[in-house]
TrEMBL record:
Keyword Methyltransferase: no
Pfam families assigned: PBP_GOBP
Name of this protein: Odorant-binding protein 6
Signal peptide: 1-22
GO cellular component, one term: extracellular space
Domain of life (superkingdom): Eukaryota
UniProt keyword list: Signal
Annotated GO MF terms: odorant binding
Coiled coil start-end: none
SMART domains: PhBP
Taxonomic lineage: Eukaryota, Metazoa, Ecdysozoa, Arthropoda, Hexapoda
GO BP: sensory perception of smell
Length: 140
């Protein structure tokens, strides 16, 4: 397993729902599945939800795996409609956050290549865009 700084926000919506314990458990199971069942600590979950860009191939591929589990990446493509639908569902009690996430997802949906053969690189592109735009919309 990589260092704690490696655990970045793997799904675009994770940042906004960090306090939801049920969501954390779902994310824990997904990360564990992507790491062949290796146990994931609370600290690793918290690190994973920070707005960082994956640097190594291992980091990029873990993010890609999590994105694929949530169908945010499907067949080498970023599905911004599904990412937005999931965000709206998870954040239905926080409409202001939904607006910010929607803005980020819409920008990233326009900035990210439509399709990439390497899903690990696609995950990197998604996170790079997300970090850029979340600053622009005042999320961090």
């Amino acid at each position: 397993m990589a260092s704690a700084s490696f655990y970045i926000s793997a799904i675009l919506l994770a940042l906004a729902v960090a306090a939801v314990s049920g969501y954390k458990e779902e994310l824990r199971k997904t990360i564990a599945s992507c790491q062949n069942g290796k146990e994931v600590t609370d600290d690793e979950i918290e690190e994973f939800m920070k707005p960082l860009i994956p640097e190594t191939q291992e980091e990029k591929c873990l993010v890609a795996c999590v994105f694929k589990q949530f169908n945010v990446i499907n067949g080498g493509s970023f599905d911004k409609r599904l990412a937005l639908a999931v965000a709206k569902d998870l954040l239905k009690s926080e409409p202001e956050k939904v607006k910010k996430i929607e803005s980020v997802i819409n920008h990233c949906g326009d900035d990210i290549p439509t399709k990439m053969d390497n899903e690990c690189d696609l995950a990197h592109e998604i996170m790079q865009c997300y970090v850029k735009w979340e600053k622009e919309v005042g999320m961090i």
